Each structure stands twice: as structure tokens, then as C-alpha cells.
Amino acid sequence: MPVIRMEFLIDAPRQVCFDAARSIDLHMESTASTKERAIGGVTSGLINLGETVTWEAIHFGIKQNLTVKITEMEEPCYFVDEMVSGAFKRFHHTHEFIPITDNQTRMIDIFDYTSPLGILGKLADWLFLEAYMTRFLRTRNEYLKQVAEDQIKALQS
Fold first, then answer.
1. Which CDD domains would you find in this protein's record (predicted)?
2. Res 122: pLDDT
3. Using one digit for the tens of pLDDT, what is the confidence trace for 1-41?
4. What is the pLDDT of residue 19?
5. Domains in the chain: how many in total?
6. Domain of 15, in residue numbers
7. For 46-103, how does the pLDDT look when each residue is reduced to its tens digit (9 = 90+)?
8. Are 39 and 56 spatial neighbours (Cβ–Cβ below 8 Å)?
């Protein structure tokens, strides 16, 4: 049961970072390489507590659907999304936003998951899945960081 944890320092206020992370539209932009798109539940705008979104994406050459629900949220501090249905046995994904200054935020992303198929899933984690998920999450978070910082730069111009 791998836990992927990463932190990013973002030169933007906490609320801007919080909203970027729960934006369905930015999620689709940040995951363009897997052709991820929202096909059910909340399909655009900002997702909120108790709401679900169903994603369709291509991972490892296979079209897959994944439904997640926002199970915890304290705006603008953190939110949690958890898998309702999909390829994983389970996952719990925490997004936390800690203000460093008025215009700088530490974003902490913790993805705790269990692969299906018992020992075969653990082998897949070890061989490729954990590294794949780490790259996927890093790419998404770097995109969100850039968008949030660009938004603030545009407001300052």
C-alpha cells in the first residue's frame, strides 16, 4: 500500500491554490497526456464537499473510468478525494494548503492507495505503478503551480 507524498511551494495565496487544485477544468488540462476528461458528476468548474466526478482516461493503453468523491473539505485549508469506483482497490488523496505568507503557499499532496489483485498488485507497484503515479501527480501539481503563479502575475501587471 504505497503512499506518495510531495510538496510544492507556490507563489500564490492559499485560496488561489485551493481553487486550482479542485478545478475540474484545470485537472483536464493538466492530464492532457492521458486524455483525461470528466464524463459524469461535476464536469466543469470547482468540485465541492460531497460531490463526485467520473473521469475517463487512457492509462497503459487502456481506456479506464474512475469515480471519486470529495469526502472531506475545509476551505481553503484542505480537501480529500476518495475512489468510489475504478481500477484501484482503494485510494485516499489529501490536498493540503498551508500559508507561508499572504502570497506564498505550501501545497502538500498525499496519495495513499492500494492496488487490486493482492500480491500481483504489490508486484505491479514495485515494478512500475508507484513510479508512474508519482510522475503523473508531479506533472499535475507542477501544472497547477504554474497556473496559480501565472494568475497572480497577470493580476499584478
1. SRPBCC_3
2. 85
3. 899 999 999 999 999 999 999 999 999 999 988 899 999 99
4. 98
5. 1
6. 3-156
7. 999 999 999 999 988 889 999 999 999 999 999 999 999 999 999 999 999 999 999 9
8. yes
**How much is the CA Rg of the chain, to the nearest whole Å?**
16
| Cβ proximity of 152 and 12 under 8 Å | yes
Beta-bridge partner residues of 113:
91
Cβ distance 114 to 1 under 8 Å? yes
Q: Which of 110, 111, 97, 96 is nearest to 66 (CA)?
A: 111
pTM, rounded to two decimals: 0.93
Tens digits of residue pLDDT in 89-142: 999 999 999 999 999 999 999 999 999 888 888 888 898 989 999 999 999 999
Nearest to 70 by CA among 97, 108, 41: 41
Strand segments (E) across the chain = 3-10, 37-41, 52-59, 62-74, 78-85, 90-101, 104-114
31's grid cell: 492530464
- Grid cell in block for residue 11: 507563489
The three-state secondary structure class of 1 is: coil
Instruction: Return the CATH number at 140.
Output: 3.30.530.20
